[in-house]
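Following the same procedure, the fold was encoded as tokens, giving this record:
***
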Amino acid sequence: MHQVEFTSIDKISLEGVIHPGVGDLTRGAVIQVHGINADMTEGGMFVRLAERLAEAGFNVLRFSFRGHGHSGGTQRGATIAGELLDLQAAIDYVRERFPGPLSIVASSFGAVSTALSLRWLGNRLAQLVLWNPVLDLKATFIEPELPWGRMNFSPEQQELLATQGFLMLDDEFEVGRVLFEEFHHYQPLNSLLASAVPAIIVHGDRDSAVSYEIAQQAAEVKPNTEFCTVSGSDHGFDTRAREDEAVQVTVNWLTTDEGPA
């Protein structure tokens, strides 16, 4: 693997790591898209997944959005619109360098920019994997239905957006006013359902942050989509065994010759 740097269309510098495919079999490329308070390692899961996919013949890019990791920008300045630009830059970077089909693995909030990019991606995207995806911004952040959201986006927390300009997410990430305002306008679920890309959703059935039911229902409605439950798992796959299960499901699905059912 080797470190890379590329630039978004608005000149934000983005850090990344390329894991080159191993062997003579070239399956194409995979871009990994992380969550709201993570970075390109996704707590180590993206590193392990990238290594497994490289061994299987994929060229893999994992990168950090603006305001995350060592990429440019600030936490408080992070926005969905900015992440859309960053993902576009990552896609352009990969397509200029690696032939073959393109796939995306998006975790949690990474599903937002990914789903919203599906319309312009069209048939450029061969396969899509979503881990615990945020598909309903209202239910997750604005009027949160689950314990994590009720804790982090309570009325008291939301009042901080007016008084100090940001709120603290999990005591580690500054969510600014603009990002929170975007939650009222974007509809990633509609974008996902409008896409024909073959997909699999991998979700823990004890997720206390992002709705398992919304993701399950999306998989039932969207054509060419499988759904895999990681039994007993909270958000992010909460034990090493459950993380490994999600990684294995993803590798198996991306490498099968038959494609999704």
Observations:
- DSSP finds ten helices and ten strands in the chain.
- The mean pLDDT is 95.
- The first helix runs from residue 45 to 55.
- The radius of gyration is 17 Å.
